[in-house]
Amino acid sequence: MQQRSTFIPVQYSVVLAIGCAGALLARCREAAARFSLGVETGDLLSIIEMAASLRPIALLVDADIYGFDPGEFDALALSVGARCILIDDEEPLDQLVERLGRLMTASGPAVAKDGPTPSRRGSPRSGIRWASAARNRQAA
């Protein structure tokens, strides 16, 4: 009789930080660590593939980056079952920790948007879809 392994891999919960660098990324990492969450980072060229493979519980999106194409970020969050959390360079660590804490205790559908109102600078339809299409053209 052949024995089967009963090992079940532990699901590693992550958040995907988009457009975050320097001190903002450090605050994201520190806040996520308080909830035993990993933080992965991505740029506009890689976030679609990263989100699809990682299935993050949240997209931490710089509010200025979000403003370039809000609909696409919301659609990406919906497609992977994540929440879209808008953050900015001035957000204090304790506020980010509080917002992640609400996410961790929330029940119900995983799709919601939380955060400051993004600025509306830049072209309104430039964002994720364009960057992904450009990357695909380069690979061809």
Write up what this structure looks like:
The protein has 140 residues and is an alpha/beta fold. It has a single domain (14-139), classed as 3-Layer(aba) Sandwich (Rossmann fold). It contains six helices and five strands; from the N terminus they run βαβαβααβαβα. A five-stranded parallel sheet has the order 2-1-3-4-5, sandwiched between helices. The relative contact order is 0.18. Residues 107-113 and 116-127 have low confidence and may be disordered.
Write a brief structural summary.
The chain is α/β, with parallel strands linked by helices and 140 residues long. It has helices at residues 22-33, 47-54, 63-66, 70-80, 93-105, 128-139; strands at residues 14-18, 38-42, 58-62, 83-87, 113-114. It has a five-stranded parallel beta sheet, with helices on both faces.
Name the features.
alpha/beta, 140 residues, 6 helices, five-stranded parallel beta sheet
The radius of gyration over CA amounts to 16 Å
What portion of residues belong to β-strands?
15-25%
Q: What oligomeric state best describes the polypeptide chains here? A: single chain
Mean pLDDT over the residues: 78
- How many individual β-strands? 5
Sheet/helix structural class: alpha/beta
Write the layout of secondary structure elements.
Elements: E1 14-18, H1 22-33, E2 38-42, H2 47-54, E3 58-62, H3 63-66, H4 70-80, E4 83-87, H5 93-105, E5 113-114, H6 128-139
Parallel strand pairs: 1-2, 1-3, 3-4, 4-5
Helix pairs in contact: 1-5
